[in-house]
Amino acid sequence: MAVAANFDSKFILQPFVLMRVATNQKKSDGANPWIMEQFLGVLYGGLVSYQFSQVLVKISLIYQYRRLFTTWAAQKKTFFLFIWMIIYGSASILLSVFHCWPISNFWSDPGRSGCAPLPAVSEFLTISNVVNNILIWCFPLFYIVPLKLPRRQDKRRLLVLFGAALL
Fold first, then answer.
1. Residue 143 lies inside a defined structural domain of this protein
2. Nearest 5°: phi and psi at 103?
3. What is the largest CA-CA distance in the chain?
């Protein structure tokens, strides 16, 4: 989780680095190719680190579910979720790293020849992240709803606790 937080903090700081790179130029100079390369290089690093941190956070949540739900069925489901997240994570990280070939085309080639369209790659990664988030969020609900707790309020508290992941 600490590694994921480190990558998330780098992603949060990325806009400030981008602003610093962009504002180190006078407006009268026009577009400087070197500054544009720096800008796109930082953007590329942010995209890759964001994907990596998302996968690490999801794997840590699955690991926590594995520790929390100790029945054989839950252990089996968390194992398959873990394997799925490793496969999905590897594919998404590879896609975010190698959507341009050679990789330097992302920041050095203004026409981006040899690159998959960035909006299409971003939309695919976003939709798949949302689907995986819903899958991971719904997992504990199947074990909480059928619980027979002494008071109704206790079940509501648990649902609110696990539902806070949507925020």
1. no
2. -60, -35
3. 71
